[in-house]
């Protein structure tokens, strides 16, 4: 008896195992079959598989010939071959079982035979066509003058990553203040996967205002590519680099984004970060005058505010609650951070339908120094003079037209009302 050989079934092979091949003309046809024979009287069975049967496993299946297809004019047409196949296959089995009784020496033996046909078939390979349907199309709005003027550098880095992922990128570079508003308001957005804003909080502020000016709600989500000085909204979602932003564009999920609607002097401005009054505005005005210092300008501006803290009188209304008196500042926050990593409102969320309002009453310079130091880690809320509230709207009435800080931009004057618009836009995070 020949020793058993290990046989590996190749892809695309086919064979037939049968216990009865009556149509075979070969005298040794039994050597090319496999059979299981069961004897009910003895409770025994055996399985025979010969070398020829094993060898037959290695025979490739005959080439597939597709059936003819008859068109309406009765002209037969055929397809010459199968489409391109990939290496993923499945096993197709056909099994036929026959049972019969055989009387032997006054004893009936119940026997059965079966034939087993199996074929390894490939799954059709479907190639993804390089069309717009399979290549996300992204609108990139770039502010080359944002922050430390890294807009163009970050765009090149983003383009390289997205191009490798098979994405299309349409780039519009802003030419000056207000241009991003026009782009977001007038662009046809229905075919874009997202709007990638490459800039700082000021650029995002303009894009948000442009989207809110559209006649129909904008369903295209915003994607943040941080390139500014503060990047408060990016920090809210722990977006700190271009690779982080590219990952969110490719794998992120659209999430609701609340918008602050600020009404002042019969005008309406939409904010995504803060609406500030008092010292929050004074610090920003001073910081803009020394913009050439970069991120450290906010710390120097805050130090000047500590040395010369102006006090203002106002009436603050939080939903149905009214507060009277003197204040150093009042800030309505949609994000936790303001400026550069100033953790102004530690509990703020962009999807809870609430404003986090921070009020600072008059206090000593020493305590004011602790307040500005505590803003770095959010510990300032426990200090004297600080009041922390949550509301859906806030109104500040003043006797003087003090300027406002709207998302880091000096725009408008008090009195003003800030109201949250829940889930007004979508953000890709």
Describe the structure.
The structure is a single chain. The chain has 429 residues and is an alpha+beta fold. The protein folds into three domains: 14-124, no CATH class; 137-252, Rossmann fold (3-Layer(aba) Sandwich), CATH 3.40.50; 267-421, Tumour Suppressor Smad4, CATH 2.60.200. Helices cover 20% and strands 38% of the residues. The chain is built from nine helices and 25 strands. It has a six-stranded antiparallel sheet with strand order 13-12-25-22-15-16, with helices on one face. Helix 2 (151-164) crosses helix 6 (242-251), helix 3 packs parallel to helix 4 and helix 7 (279-289) packs across helix 8 (297-307). The protein starts with 13 loop residues before the first strand and ends with a strand.
Terminal Cα span: 69 Å
**Structural class given helices, strands, pairing?**
alpha+beta
* Low-confidence regions: 1-93, 120-133
In CATH, what is the class of the largest domain? Mainly Beta
Q: Kindly give the count of domains.
A: 3
């Amino acid at each position: 008896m020949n020793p058993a050989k290990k046989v590996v079934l190749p892809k695309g092979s086919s064979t037939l195992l049968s216990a009865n091949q009556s149509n075979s003309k070969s005298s040794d046809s039994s050597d090319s079959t496999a059979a299981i024979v069961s004897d009910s009287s003895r409770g025994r069975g055996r399985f025979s598989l010969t070398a020829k049967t094993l060898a037959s496993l290695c025979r490739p299946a005959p080439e597939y010939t597709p059936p003819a297809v008859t068109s309406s004019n009765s002209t037969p047409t055929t397809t010459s071959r199968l489409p391109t196949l990939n290496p993923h296959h499945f096993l197709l089995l056909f099994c036929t079982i026959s049972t019969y009784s055989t009387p032997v020496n006054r004893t009936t033996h119940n026997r059965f035979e079966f034939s087993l046909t199996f074929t390894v078939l490939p799954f059709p390979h479907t190639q993804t066509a390089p069309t717009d349907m399979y290549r996300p199309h992204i609108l990139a709005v770039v502010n080359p003058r944002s922050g430390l003027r890294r807009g163009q550098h970050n765009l090149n880095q983003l383009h390289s990553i997205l191009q490798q992922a098979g994405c299309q990128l349409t780039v519009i570079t802003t030419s000056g203040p207000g241009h991003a508003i026009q782009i977001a308001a007038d662009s046809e957005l229905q075919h874009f996967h997202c709007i990638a804003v490459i800039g700082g909080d000021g650029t995002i502020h303009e894009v948000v205002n442009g989207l809110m000016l559209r006649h129909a709600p904008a369903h295209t989500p915003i994607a943040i590519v941080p390139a500014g000085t503060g990047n408060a909204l990016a920090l809210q979602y722990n977006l700190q680099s271009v690779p982080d932003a590219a990952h969110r564009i490719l794998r992120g999920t659209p999430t609701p984004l609340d918008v602050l609607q600020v009404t002042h002097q019969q005008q309406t401005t939409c904010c995504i970060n803060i609406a500030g009054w008092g010292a929050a505005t004074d610090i920003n005005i001073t910081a803009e005058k020394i913009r050439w210092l970069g991120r450290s300008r906010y710390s120097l501006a805050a130090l000047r505010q500590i040395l010369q803290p102006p006090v203002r009188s106002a009436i603050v209304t939080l939903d149905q609650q009214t507060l009277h008196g003197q204040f150093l500042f009042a800030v309505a926050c949609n994000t936790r951070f303001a400026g550069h990593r100033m953790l102004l409102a530690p509990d703020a969320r962009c999807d809870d339908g609430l404003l986090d309002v921070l009020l600072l009453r008059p206090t000593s310079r020493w305590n004011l120094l602790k307040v500005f130091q505590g803003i770095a880690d959010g510990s300032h809320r426990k200090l004297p003079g600080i009041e922390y509230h949550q509301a859906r709207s806030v109104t500040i009435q003043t006797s003087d037209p003090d300027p406002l800080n709207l998302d880091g931009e000096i725009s408008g004057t008090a009195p003003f009302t800030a109201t949250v618009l829940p889930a007004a836009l979508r953000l890709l995070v």
